[in-house]
Structure formats: C-alpha cells, structure tokens
C-alpha cells in the first residue's frame, strides 16, 4: 500500500506559470484585458477557427452559445445524460427542454444514431460531448444535423489536446465550449473558451457574456477609450479575468508536452490493464488522425460486477491510499432532472454503474500508475473471489 495519498487529480503548475500570473497581477489591469485577448488569438490560430471568446467557464460558454443560436421556450436540445450537468442546466435556464440521447457503450459518447432517436420536430440543437477526450466523430453528427437545420454545439470540456480527424473541437460543429476547470488538460483554475467559425455566434456570445454591453472595460478605460456604452439586451457576467488568462497562455505553451505525458501514462495503464481480470477500457480512437486527449482514464467493470463491484473498487482503492472517481452519475438520475427523462437509455443505465475513473495527470510518475494497477488487481481479485467486504 502507498505511504502517501495519490489524489484523483492534481493540477500541473510550473514556476513560469506562477510568474505569468504574478506578472499579470502586477501589470495594473485585473479584469478582462490584453491577456484574455491574447489567449483568444492563440486559440484561434492553434485551432484554425475564426473566433475564440474567452469566458469564465465551459458552462458559461455553453450558455451563451445556446442563447446565441436562439434556443428558447418550446425548443428541445438533445444531449447525453452521461455527462456533467452543465448542458442540461443551461438548456433549462433558457426555458428549453433537455432531451437525453443514449451513448455507445464502448465510446461512451452519443452517436448520429442515438441522437437521431432522440430528435423531434422541436429539436433546435444537439450538444455532443467527446467523453474523456476520445474523439466522437462529430462529423457524422454534424452531417445528420445539417440535413434538418439543427445546430450542433460541442461540449469540449475534455477536448484540449484532442484531435478529431486531425482537427480541434469547434471546427466542424457550430461552436465548441472548452473548460479550463482545475481538473482539465489546460487550466486557468476556472475558465472556458468558446470557439466558432460563425461570426453571429461569436458576436452574440461576446455581447451576452458581458451584460449585453457594447464595450468592455478595457475599451472604455484605455487611453483612447470612451466612457459611453449601450446595453442592447440583458446578458450575463461571464468574462475571464486577465490573471487567469495569463495562466492559460502559459499553460498553452505546455499543452503538447502535457499531452505527451498523458499519452505515456495512458499507454502504461492500457498495457497493465490487459492483465487484470474483470475490467475493460474505452474503445480506441477510430481514425489514424484522431488523438485522445486522455482528460480522464476510464475503465468499465465486467457486466456481472456492476454496481456493488464498482463501488467496492472505489472503496478498495481509497483503502490503498488512491483516489478514484465516477464519471458520470447520469443527469436523468438526479432529483432535479428526473422529470426530463423520456425514452429509456439502456446503455447509459447499464454502463454508468460499471464506470470507474482512475487518476491520470502529468504530475504522476510511472510508479504511481504501477501502484494504481496493483491496487486495482488486488481489489478485483477479491471482488471476483467474493472475499471483499465493504465497510
Ligand atoms: C463534460 C463537462 N461539461 C461541462 C463541464 C463544465 O465545465 P466548467 O466547470 O468549466 O463550467 C465539465 C466540468 O467538469 C465537464 O466535465
């Protein structure tokens, strides 16, 4: 057993990144300003999209994107239930109805087929989520949606570092919402980015993200700025503060290196798990030019170990000083969202009871992965033998 606790996640922050934040704090400008603008330009050029809008979270990006494409009362938005609650929450806030589509049990994302099954005449938008950063072939969902005049927003919370057929999330869908939350591949502590090639979405997202104001503070208080502004409609307060953007800019310089580290650790997990009974991994990427971001390393227990076996596994790892987690409790299971359950979601229901997320982040080393694999093997052997006693 490990002598020190291995947390489920731990951010990777270098001295250069700390210096970048300190530099921004000393620079005399704290709210959205030049660092946020630079982060946007960097995202535009790296992703190859026309517009990037820096925001306070991925949730904020999903909210303004859905608002910008006109989602409102009477509309339905199709999304997975096996995801974080953000997309459903924003849909409900806009007065529309979330409709849950089932997932492919191997990729853990929705597909063009599962989305089609959930679509009705009222469907205004589809929110697609590449689960754990495994590309989910957004091209086929977009192709299906285009034929019906439905818009597609990617929940790209896990997608920094991912390549879907060689491209960043946000190049094929109408827009993509990235997360810079503390556990993500690129962090600003809290933050997000909306990417789009659609000028109208970008313009409306920017307007809505700052109270509907015609000019942000940087433009009003800069040397040649004017104090006048208009508020053309009620909006939200979703802008990204400059010291956080400075952290994001510095992290972006290391994104490829952090990605390589995640890939090496994931490869070690995959090789080790082959020799552990009772457990399976997420489907491999489909195309040669796909790249998994490895935002999470998720395993599935065999069907006959579902539920109690998974919970025992989380507990057994904790007893061995290892943090693990479960992604996700499906949205339709929550008391506040049960009412949106419509058609049965057989794969979502079956699979979430067997899911287990293992620690995976650049600050880990090879012996950490060996510790997790050893603890997992011991836990599964005991669970399969029926000798594991839960507390
Ligand atoms: C799939 C998914 N969507 C959305 C979010 C929300 O991200 P944020 O915390 O940046 O709003 C998360 C965050 O964990 C997530 O995992």
Descriptive overview:
The chain has 391 residues and is an alpha/beta fold. It folds into 2 domains: 15-102 and 109-253, 3-Layer(aba) Sandwich (Aspartate Aminotransferase, domain 2); 256-385, Aspartate Aminotransferase, domain 1, CATH 3.90.1150. Helix content is 38%, strand content 13%. The chain is built from 13 helices and 10 strands. The protein has helices at 15-26, 34-47, 58-68, 86-93, 112-118, 138-147, 199-209, 217-221, 242-253, 255-273, 308-319, 346-352, 366-385, and strands spanning 51-55, 76-80, 97-101, 123-128, 151-156, 175-179, 192-196, 279-281, 297-301, 355-358. It has a 7-stranded mixed β-sheet, sandwiched between helices. It has a 3-stranded antiparallel β-sheet with strand order 8-9-10, covered by helices on one side. β4, α6 and β5 (151-156) form a beta-alpha-beta unit. α1 (15-26) packs antiparallel against α9, α3 packs across α4 (86-93) and α10 runs parallel beside α13 (366-385). The longest helix has 20 residues, at 366-385. The chain is globular. The mean pLDDT is 96. The structure holds pyridoxal-5'-phosphate (PLP). The site of pyridoxal-5'-phosphate has 13 residues, from α3. The site of pyridoxal-5'-phosphate (PLP) has 13 residues, from α3.
């Amino acid at each position: 057993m490990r002598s020190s606790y291995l947390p489920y996640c731990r951010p990777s922050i270098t001295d250069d990144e700390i210096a970048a934040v300190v530099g921004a704090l000393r620079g005399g400008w704290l709210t959205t300003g030049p660092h946020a603008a630079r982060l946007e330009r960097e995202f535009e050029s790296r992703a190859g999209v026309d517009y990037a809008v820096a925001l306070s979270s991925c949730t904020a990006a999903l909210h303004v994107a859905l608002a910008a494409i006109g989602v409102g009362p009477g509309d339905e938005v199709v999304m997975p239930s096996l995801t974080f609650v953000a997309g459903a929450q924003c849909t409900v806030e806009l007065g529309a109805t979330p409709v849950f589509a089932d997932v492919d049990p191997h990729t853990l994302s929705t597909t063009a087929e599962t989305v089609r099954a959930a679509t009705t005449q009222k469907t205004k938008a589809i929110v697609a989520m590449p689960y754990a950063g495994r590309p989910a072939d957004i091209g086929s969902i977009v192709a299906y949606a285009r034929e019906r005049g439905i818009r597609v927003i990617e929940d790209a919370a896990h997608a920094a570092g991912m390549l879907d057929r060689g491209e960043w999330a946000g190049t094929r869908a109408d827009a993509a919402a990235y997360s810079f939350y503390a556990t993500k591949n690129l962090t600003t502590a809290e933050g997000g980015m909306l990417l789009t090639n659609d000028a109208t979405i970008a313009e409306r997202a920017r307007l809505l993200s700052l109270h509907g104001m015609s000019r942000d503070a940087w433009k009003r208080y800069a040397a040649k700025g004017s104090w006048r502004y208009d508020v053309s409609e009620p909006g939200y307060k979703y802008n990204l503060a400059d010291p956080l953007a400075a952290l994001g800019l510095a992290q972006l310089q290391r994104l490829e290196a952090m990605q390589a580290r995640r890939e090496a650790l994931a490869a070690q997990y995959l090789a080790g798990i082959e020799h552990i009974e009772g457990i399976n991994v997420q489907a491999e990427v489909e195309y040669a030019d796909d790249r998994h971001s490895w935002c999470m390393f998720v395993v599935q227990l065999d069907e006959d170990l579902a539920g109690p076996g998974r919970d025992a596994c989380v507990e057994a790892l904790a007893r061995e000083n290892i943090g693990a987690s479960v992604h996700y409790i499906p949205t339709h299971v929550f008391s506040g969202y049960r009412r949106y359950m419509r058609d049965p979601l057989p794969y979502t229901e079956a699979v979430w009871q067997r899911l287990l997320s293992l620690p995976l982040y650049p600050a880990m080393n090879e012996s950490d992965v060996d510790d997790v694999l050893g603890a997992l093997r011991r836990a599964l052997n005991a669970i399969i033998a029926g000798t594991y006693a839960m507390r």
